[in-house]
Specification:
Shape: elongated
Number of helices: 16
Oligomer: single chain
Length: 426
């Protein structure tokens, strides 16, 4: 018989209990934070029509190249969701009676047939929050503050870089970048921090841009004053997008200052977020210690997506943020591997030829609300205590024949070594 290929598909992985315990703790921490900010839970299908996921209001050309597609028995063209954003936009388009403003969160698997690197897989879990029906920058400010709060609970220090697509698009219009090449140029600029100015210039030239346009973009990228919002004010009278972008950024900055989080939120005029979906504020989250170089969360405003699906000019002010659960887990593992070995068990019960009676003790303690594991392998006492100590279990209950006869149990604290006697009716 031929041996079966039972390896994981490249870009996917199993999470054994030790890892899954931490992943679920991350999930609970994020979910509790989302609920704390008034968000309501939502779940969308993993399977979607390809036409929906390939919408121009979706992930853009680069992500669409990574989309998993299939044909079902009815010969329908289907795709696995590559994010949670477009499925959410679909929900609002199908349920327009939902009371606005509406805040939702969703935590679920998404799939991309893309490059694999540290913390990045082809099957991964995204944790999203979106707000519909708020056109003020207060929505962005609250999501950014929420992100800082969530990562503080996870003991990870992050910095948030932010920009506005209107500002960036307006500057490129000033440099006379052709409208049909705008998205491609923004995708190139999005690589600036990774590849540097010279590589960006080379790619821009390869797009067929004129030398004058490329040189104008280079001067913009290398100007020492461009890190300040005030650098862009002289251009506001010449370009409507720049005017609107500066206005929105100033409003956002005022909220961030009032919340006293300006130091953790940094304006980056070259942050592009290459996805075509974005229409205003954009942001990315980075670890301060740089143990993972790429972003561990991102988002922004995408006011046209829902209306685009409906084929209407009706406005749906929408802004969202997304965290990658897998990359957060990787960040915690890199930060302190020893911290990834907690035990969820409150009591470990060791029977000494008293399996039936020990099961009764386990049942009683579970009814009291404790997490209890009963040793069913008939280990010797020393081996059982060694296992409990190795697994980080704090309390051990030994149930021997003498304990049963005297209607009592012995509880040992594995941290202090102290023992105590508790009456128990067998």
């Amino acid at each position: 018989m031929r041996k079966m290929d039972y390896q994981n598909v490249k870009g996917t992985q199993d999470y054994l209990p030790e890892a899954e315990v931490i992943r679920r703790k991350i999930r609970r921490t994020l979910e509790d934070t989302f609920i704390q900010y008034g968000c309501k839970p939502l779940e969308t299908p993993i399977l979607n029509y390809t036409e929906l996921m390939a919408s121009k209001y979706g992930g853009g050309a680069e992500i669409l190249e990574e989309m998993y597609t299939l044909i079902d028995r009815g010969e329908r063209d289907l795709a696995l969701r590559y994010d949670l954003t477009i499925p959410f936009a679909k929900v609002i388009a199908m349920n327009q009676t939902i009371k606005m403003p509406f805040k939702r969160y969703e935590i679920g698997k998404v799939f991309r047939d893309g490059p694999i690197k540290t913390g990045r897989f082809r099957e991964f879990t995204q944790c999203d929050v979106d707000i519909v029906g708020v056109d003020s920058q207060i929505a962005e400010a609250e999501l950014m503050e929420m992100a800082l709060s969530a990562f503080a609970k996870l003991d990870l220090k992050i910095a948030i870089q932010y920009n506005n697509r209107k500002l960036l698009s307006g500057m490129l219009e000033m440099f006379e970048v052709p409208s049909e090449q705008m998205s491609a140029v923004i995708l190139v600029l999005d690589k600036l921090e990774k590849v540097g100015v010279e590589a960006v210039k080379k790619e821009l030239s390869e797009l067929g841009l004129s030398l004058t346009v490329v040189e104008s973009i280079e001067r913009f990228l290398t100007d020492d004053e461009n890190s300040s919002i005030y650098y862009f004010e002289p251009f506001t009278k010449a370009n409507e997008n720049i005017e609107q972008g500066v206005k929105e950024l100033k409003k956002l900055m005022s909220f961030l200052a009032y919340l006293k989080i300006s130091e953790q939120c940094v304006f980056n005029p070259f942050l592009a977020r290459g996805l075509e979906i974005y229409t205003g504020t954009i942001y990315e989250l980075f670890l301060v210690d740089q143990t993972i170089k790429s972003s561990i969360g991102s988002g922004g405003r995408y006011d046209n997506a829902i209306a685009g699906l409906l084929g209407t000019d009706q406005s749906f002010s929408t802004v969202g943020i997304s965290f990658g659960l897998d990359v957060i887990y990787t960040a915690l593992a890199l930060k302190d591997p020893a911290a990834l070995e907690p035990s969820l068990i409150d009591f470990y019960i060791i029977p000494m030829n008293t399996l039936k009676e020990s099961l009764l003790v386990a049942t009683e303690f579970r009814q009291r609300g404790y997490n209890v594991e009963l040793d069913m392998s008939n280990k010797k006492l020393g081996k059982a205590l060694e296992r409990a100590n190795k697994d980080g279990i704090r309390n051990v209950i030994v149930v021997g024949e003498n304990e049963v006869k005297s209607n009592q149990i012995t509880v040992k604290n594995m941290e202090t070594g102290e023992t105590s006697i508790e009456l128990f009716q067998f």
